[in-house]
Amino acid sequence: MAQQTPNPAPTGSSLGSNPVSSQDSNMRYPNQKYFEREFDMRRLVNGEVDGSDYYSDAMGVANCLYASSDGKVSPLVGGPLSDDPGYSHLSKAMRKSSACLRGTNPAIAFFVGAALAEKSVLAEHDSLPPRAMTLNMDVAEPFYTPASGSLTIDHVGRCLAVFSPGLAEDVLKTKVGSESEKSALDKAYSSTPECGVSKAPEKIPALMQRAAIAYGLEAWMRESAS
Q: What DSSP string describes 39-91?
């Protein structure tokens, strides 16, 4: 199939909307821990609290799940725009491997899934090209373009993964909540005009942007390899 010139992503984005509106807590048990997760997730999405510790704890859970699954974690990732937005597979794995839940903060599936995506990408793709050299737009464009409705940070994360895989990966190589993470995010946005976002959206917490990139890059590595 012929290679095509990339077209810019839609620019009329609504990046101030909740990027995980239907996935906020995801482990829906009618008990105190569920309500704690629900409350914590809403505060994190709204930028009311610093979520770096939550993400860091999620990485610990992800490392444990990755080891116990022999690295076969793609079916567990789930997440926005995936076939498992409710994290049913991940929730089952977390219940089965309860010994992995050792962090001080509640294990929120959204962040554990993102951390698993990071772990998978960094383990399997050590050095991606900063910018995509060639793209099959018949595959790429439907991957990052909203089928209907508004553009969200999840679509932008996918767009960055498609056009600037190495720059997206650079974000995942930084420490959560660090200045280097902020710099890597700014560079990824400013270097990827196709996505229609010139700088990091101020109203969206950096950890949500990082998560969108992690989910997008993990999904694109699988999609483009198939």
A: HHHHHHHTTSS--HHHHHHHHHHHHHHHHHTTT--HHHH--TTSS-TT-HHHH
Q: Which residue has the tokens 């997730």?
A: 41
Q: Which two tokens stand for residue 70?
A: 């022999």
Q: The tokens of 102 are what?
A: 């050792």
* pLDDT for position 86: 87
Q: Is 33 helix (H, G, I), strand (E, B) or coil?
A: helix
Which residues of the chain fall short of a pLDDT of 50? 1-32, 34-35
The DSSP call for residue 63 is: H
Determine the Cα–Cα distance for residues 149 and 144; give it in Å rounded to an integer.
13
For the stretch 140-154, what's the b/e string if a residue is b when 16 or more beta carbons lie within 10 angstroms of its beta carbon? bbebbeeeeeebbbb
Residue 213: both structure tokens together: 């990139």
- Distance (Å, whole) CA 217 – CA 41: 23
- Which of 130, 124, 110 shows the shortest CA–CA distance to 61? 110
What pLDDT digit, counting tens, does each position of 187-201 carry?
999 999 999 999 999
Q: Using an 8 Å Cβ cutoff, are 113 and 215 in contact?
A: yes
